[in-house]
Amino acid sequence: MNYNLNQGSATQEKRSTYQALKKLIQLISNERRNLWIASGIILLNSGLLLLGPLLIGHTIDAYVRTKQYQGVLQFSAILLGMYLIAFCTGYLQTKLMGGVGQRMLYTLRNAIFNKLQELPVAFFNENKAGDLISRVNSDTDKINQFFSQSLMQFIGSIVTMIGAGIFLLLINFELGAVTLGPAVLILIFTALVSPWVKRRNAANLKSVGGMSAEIQESLSNFKVIIAFNRRDYFRKRFDEANQNNYRTAIGAGLANNILMPVYGLLSSMAQLIVLLFGIYLISQGEFTIGLLVSYLSYAINFYNPLKQLAALWASFQVAMASWDRVSQILSLENDLPQLKDTVETSTSLLEFRNVHFSYTEGQEILHHINFSLEKGKTYALIGPTGGGKTTTASLIARLYDATEGTVLLSGKDIRSYTDEERSKKIGFILQEPFLFSGTVKDNILYGNPKYQDYSNAQLEEVIKAANLEALLAIFDEGLETLVTSGSDNISLGQKQLIAFMRAVLRNPELLILDEATANIDTITEQLLGMILKNLSKDTTLVIIAHRLNTIENADEIFFVNSGEVIRAGTLDHAMDMLLKGKRKS
Ligand SMILES: Nc1ncnc2c1ncn2[C@@H]1O[C@H](COP(=O)(O)OP(=O)(O)OP(=O)(O)O)[C@@H](O)[C@H]1O
């Protein structure tokens, strides 16, 4: 599966705006009550707004022209009451929708974050963290802004327009038809430019994601940048990303505002038509001044919301473009599905059967691999850089699935285990261990529910029983040693020790160490060797190492080169192969 969100094919389905909107609305389905109340308020407000001109027209014709000022005062008081009700209900509606928007934002961010947690390693290889952060933070906020600030105005404007349009046609059909003529032009124009507006906004959001990715990359690599004095290089890259964002923002701004002047012009034209045609009708005795005043108000009530819609339409298009980016993530599926229980077909703890693997289609990294690992034995994977050791280990831990062939764990297809079952059986100490902010204890217990509620004293007992005591002693404050964000207060070797303790305490059946001792001094390395030796006799070890002394106790050595895994026999032979880069079948 192509997980690259910035390549068209990662979008699972091309959807119409209607379908996209329908899916988005589903997210706030539990807000039905609030939405109904808000909609009721809109209807009430629009009704009051539409009743106003009728009352004003009636007041002019019935009381102003006949100079009955008491009637004028009475109707003015009614109008004032109506405006006050509209003010209060408008406030209530803003409050309701603000809450709906924030809850939607909360749900949406949770949904994306949970989806990100479900996705496989391949997804994170293909996408930059900065772009993903921008989708989680900024795109969701754009959707929230539309829902909390614009949606009800949007609906209110449409309701008022429809109501005003009906009044215009009812009062005088001919005049109404002429008045509404420019609106038809506006509709056609809007329908024509909308896809373009959405594209401009999508390009802008993409550039915001790109800029965020640049910032993230330079911030997380700042030491290399400073050490290599490459600040100018990153400044230039950021400047390019910023310029791109500037260009696309101008494009989006223009697109978002293009409707405004057109709406303004056509709305003024409509009012001019009403005035000219209305005066003509009055001169013919078919219309009254009061009716013309009402009529003009309705025309304004029709075209003003239309102008407002032009602004709201832009916010709608931004929200839709944001939703496309967000739903792209939500519609992705993990391409490492769990198979239904399969039959046991191997007696080994782990077996690679005719395994082929490619990260990218057409570029095979592992070719036709066959080997098996037995319970309680220690295996070493050696070979030149880029030969495929980490890839082989990643397939053992099912970070990826074989493109062809099968990996069997305890005799069954590795794909038939749940993530929980598999991660319980297999421990993987990565080349670059990652630690979370917190304490050494938090990091050691990460992913280990068994000791989660243990006190420090109890945990220290467990650590002692696992022979890890000497490793913990390396940390000044023991279990309570702080690991700060980015874990810069801890050396790389110390990080590897924490990752080591984390993996050993989980007591897996198969433990993979990928260059796990590369940054550890020889004495501590010997200590780790002892700890590994004292692991349960049933634990199988897979050690990837460049330093050959690390693997001298291995029961079997595999030489991994050019995507092939070959039994290397003795350590001397393996060394010979490594030195000569010789390939042997
Ligand atoms: N995420 C990835 N996407 C595409 N290609 C990859 C990816 N990771 C590794 N490769 C490629 O796969 C090949 C094998 O890489 P791998 O990391 O398995 O080698 P290795 O033997 O572990 O190297 P080292 O000793 O340097 O850790 C290399 O050609 C590498 O470029």
Automatic annotation (TrEMBL):
It comes from the Bacteria. Keywords: ATP-binding, Cell membrane, Membrane, Nucleotide-binding, Transmembrane, Transmembrane helix, Transport. Residues 36-317 form the ABC transmembrane type-1 domain. Signal peptide: none annotated. Its main location: membrane. It holds the Pfam family ABC_membrane. The keyword Transport applies. One of its GO terms (molecular function) is ATP binding. GO terms for cellular component: plasma membrane. The chain crosses the membrane at residues 35-60, 72-92, 151-171, 177-197, 262-282. It is a multi-pass membrane protein. Residues 350-585 form the ABC transporter domain. It is found in: Cell membrane. This is ATP-binding cassette, subfamily B. It comes from Pedobacter steynii.
